[in-house]
Design goal:
Aminopeptidase, 7 helices, single chain, about 260 residues, alpha+beta
Amino acid sequence: MVHSNNRYYVLREDKDLAELELFLKHRYLAFKESKYGKMVNDNNYNLDIDGYDLQSRHFGLFEYSGRSSRVVGYVRLVQDKVGPQLKDVWQLSVRYPDLIDNIDFDVNYPFPSMKYLEDNSSFVEAYEKYGKIVEASRLSMHPSVRTLSLASFVIQAITAITYTNFDINAGLVSCKLSHLGFYRKLGCILLGKSTYNGEPTYVLANPYDRLPDDFKATAERIGKAFEKYKEVHYYPKRAGVFSPLLSYVNKQENNRSHSA
């Protein structure tokens, strides 16, 4: 896609089964084309799916440029209960029978990072302390948009949505050493260290009460945008604007009237 000067990005949950499939196909290709290719199972459908998808909220990052749009990013929020897209995830596994074995789940590990921690004790303590926890997982972005500013937006937006809309006390995330400093600035605390695909990985908790005060103000604006529109916008030349611009709203209304 040719990037025009008016391109912008929208982070939101899938609206139907077709969009969820697009998200999971993006996830598969993003990982297969990176050094983390072993994180996904090879299959002829180019679809990444696992048991944690059954208890997740799925978010896609859309890039809009002119009249075209495409999925360029993805992140999921893994809960310790079934997710709202449970039926759709199961339908996909049935549609592609070769993948149904991927839909396994171990009740002893309600969150993905628990499988890889060398010592689970600090995680268990955090779980008991904060109670309502989610884990941000499978963050992936298309190479053409993999910039620090856009990645920061996705991470900050999903963090804000988690606390302002889903009644969560703490978020979890796994990251490599080079990203540790970024998450520390968001108030994250280290729960433990693990090794994934031969690379050191750090499991962090991000309790709401440790969020920096300046970010809490931003999180509130993001949260209000998501609460009202069910999506958060990122305009490269309009930093701090998270709600749809009037031109976007008008375009959506025109699209709906033409399809009616």
